[in-house]
Amino acid sequence: MNPVGPELLTRLLDEQGSALVLYARQWCQTPEDVVQEALLRLARQAVLPDNVVGWLYRVVRNGAISASRRASRRKRREAAVAHRGEPWFHASETARLDAEEATAALSELPIEQRETIVARLWGGMTFEEIAELTDSSTSSTHRWYQAGLSALQERLGVACPNTSEKNRT
Amino acid sequence: MSEYEREEPDVEGPRRQRQPAPEEPTGKFELPAELKAFEARLASLSPRAPRFDREALIYEAGRASVLAGSDGPMAGSRRWSRWGWPASFGSMTTVAAALLVVVLIRPEPPVLVKYVRITDNHAKPAERPDENLPSATPAENLPGEPATGVLVQEDTPIDSAPFDQRRFSILAAVLGHGGDSETAPQRRRQLEVLLAQGADVPFSMATPSADNGGSVHEAAPQPYWQLREQLLQ
Q1: pLDDT at A60 over 90
Q2: How far apart are CA B181 and CA A7, in angstroms?
Q3: Is the ipTM of this complex over 0.90?
Q4: Among candidate residues A46, A54, A48, the one with its CA nearest the CA of residue A16
Q5: Partner of B200 at 20 to 30 A CA spacing, among A6, A148, B91, B154?
């Protein structure tokens, strides 16, 4: 019997679908297709991977990079991948940042920092898992993460919590 | 609990608050307080929901899992279709090519001419081949037939053989005697030799008479083959 049943797929879609699409969006313009292909590939596995989420992120990363290469061969418009069109985040009242501004700021970061921030914040991965995913060291991923957060904070104009609170009041 | 269910980072947000935050192994990756607060604010953003059909995706996933199942009833047939037939085709093609090369480069077998002496004294006189007569055996061989074991006889030119009066006298003497069963083969051989050397020349020849048992009559000259037939009878 195949180890990947519909229940597991539903759970993965609920809990990781959005993050996986956001992660794939860092490279390509067709993130949904990449994520779907990754899930179908998971369904074809005879043995369940040890770390399903890590396996999915790696497959999505490889698929997104391949899709980006195919698209760049066609159009040579890699810069267009970064941010054009709809924002990457939901505009909700509970969010304390503007979705479009956050999208724009995030899209301007280097790919290593973007990738690390997305995998850590919305993918829920640890630094060790991110390091394994990106074939780098744990300290490198932490350095990218911290540098990326600092750059985002600067671009979004968020100095510190105390200052923000004062500005709101 | 599967591997999928694991801890999540220590950030705020509606989704992250459901599970405990992950713990890094050491404190060396501690963020500054200012960045921790910003991290929490950033994590409050929710990624856009994917725009694919969940039901269709679940259906496709189930279909893919069935098709890729290694323990299905058709798994062996699929594997054979994928690898077996191409492998069989390749091996058979290789064997056929090797046989073709062998056939093309094989040398011609050497022609072996073997002379066989046939001595059959027990054959019937009518069926016995004429051993000492000129033979047309080489002309009977078809071209391309194997030459091994062919009886080859030298042609004896009858016309060039001189007439031997002495032997002819012997012939007459032999014919004049009835002879016994022991000397019959020898007489026959002598007659054949003499006749082959030109016994059909126009000489009057004494031939045995069947009714008088040895009386000699003057007979008209007869050709060789008639004499031979008479003698053999």
Answers
A1: yes
A2: 114
A3: no
A4: A54
A5: B154
User: B47 - beta bridge partners?
Assistant: A89
Same domain for A92 and A72: no
**Number of helices (H) and strands (E), helices first, in chain A?**
9, 0
Is A112 in the same domain as A127?
yes
User: Which position has the higher pLDDT, B162 or A48?
Assistant: A48
The amino acid sitting at A12 is: L
Please give the single-letter amino acid code of residue A10: T
**pTM score over 0.90:** no
pLDDT digits (tens, 9 = 90+) for B24-40: 554 567 788 888 888 88
Identify all chain A residues contacting B60, using CB atoms and an 8 Å cutoff.
36, 40, 43
Domain-terminating residue out of A45, A62, A82:
A82
Tokens for B16, please give them: 């992250």
- Domain of residue A56, residue span: 1-82
Q: What is the CATH number of the domain that holds A140?
A: 1.10.10.10
Q: How many domains does chain A have?
A: 2
Mean pLDDT of chain B: 65
A81 touches chain B (CB under 8 A): no
* Together in a domain, A73 and A2: yes
Q: Between A and B, how many CB-CB pairs are < 8 A?
A: 153
CA dihedral A137, A139, A141, A145 (to 10 degrees): 180
User: What's chain A's average pLDDT?
Assistant: 82
Contact A82, A107 (CB under 8 A): yes
CB contact under 8 A, A18 and B50: yes
**Which of A44, A65, A82 is where one domain is finished?**
A82
Same domain, A42 and A120: no
> For residue B99, what pLDDT is reported?
95
Residue among B4, B50, B66 whose CB faces A21 most closely: B50
Residue A55 has pLDDT above 90, yes or no: yes
**A49 vs B: CB within 8 A:** yes
B231 burial (CB, 10 Å; 0-12 / 13-18 / 19+) is middle
